[in-house]
Amino acid sequence: MEKKWLDKKQSFEIKDVRDLKGNFLPAILKKAQNLEIGKGLCIIQSFEPIPLYSVLNELGYEHHTEKIAETEYRVYFFRIKKAKESSKDMPFKPTAIVNFNTIDPKLADNVVNFWNYIWGKENPAIDMKTRLLLSLANGVGAGRMRQAVREFVKAYSIGVTTQEFDELFAMFVWNQGIGYFASEIGPSALFGAYKLIKRLEEKGEKRNEIVRVLLEKYGEANPNVGTFYKKNI
């Protein structure tokens, strides 16, 4: 069904993010949050920005995508209602896909579609909590602590308990070995985030406040967590 607002798309503000290398998502979200009902935004990207669809949908937007050329997608977002960002919205969007775009836009397009197959599938057989815990464990097993801490924060944000993490970390000792745990996992940002939530929960802090503190200390700005290159100053 054709959307009634499409005849207004030429008036939408355009954001061309094809050549941007850093994390431009916060700027887009800020702009989207401030737009009034009946207003729209056009995002131009080299690959189809599928992860943006659900994010802006949470803010009350519909979207329409047009493939202009092999490496040019135009996505029109139109606000149909006011909706605050969901408190259950998971942190850490797949912004690292932009890194693949630096190599080749076609590669980024393949990656984002594979990401959508794994993480965006409707009615998946494996629930999201289990997926995140599996991905967290895989990250630890492969020595990818950056991935592991991101999955840890996301898992906690959607309700994984410290008791479940206790059992998972005990399994890391069993599977990876005491020596590996002592030298690699113990000093890692992952274990630091784990100790942080246990400490804050013991103080009686609410989960949403703990997530806020987690993102403050172990968010994109943390060099052990972020996925964008940062020059040493």
In a nutshell, what does this entry contain?
The chain is an alpha+beta fold.
Task: Throw out a few tags for this protein.
elongated, 4 strands, alpha+beta, Translation Initiation Factor IF3, 233 residues
Describe this structure in words.
It is built from 10 helices and 4 strands, in the order E-H-E-H-E-E-H-H-H-H-H-H-H-H. The chain has 233 residues and is of the alpha+beta class. It folds into 2 domains: 1-122, TusA-like domain (Translation Initiation Factor IF3); 124-218, no CATH class. A 4-stranded mixed sheet has the order 1-2-4-3, covered by helices on one side. Helix 5 runs antiparallel to helix 6 and helix 9 packs antiparallel against helix 10.
Topology, element by element:
Layout: E1 13-16, H1 25-34, E2 40-45, H2 50-58, E3 61-69, E4 72-79, H3 97-103, H4 105-119, H5 128-141, H6 145-157, H7 162-176, H8 178-185, H9 189-202, H10 207-218
Parallel strand pairs: 1-2
Antiparallel strand pairs: 2-4, 3-4
Question: Count of helices?
Answer: 10
Briefly, what CATH class of the largest domain? Alpha Beta
Total individual domains: 2
Shape-level CATH architecture of the largest domain? 2-Layer Sandwich
Q: SSE order in H/E notation?
A: EHEHEEHHHHHHHH
Give the name of the CATH superfamily of the largest domain: TusA-like domain
Helicity, as a percent range: 40-55%
Query: What is the CATH T-level topology of the largest domain?
Result: Translation Initiation Factor IF3
Instruction: State the end-to-end CA separation.
Output: 52 Å
The overall pLDDT, averaged over residues, is 92
| Main sheet: strands, sense, barrel | 4 strands, mixed
Structural class of the secondary elements?
Answer: alpha+beta
Shape: elongated
How are the strands ordered across the major sheet?
A: 1-2-4-3
- Evaluate the radius of gyration: 20 Å
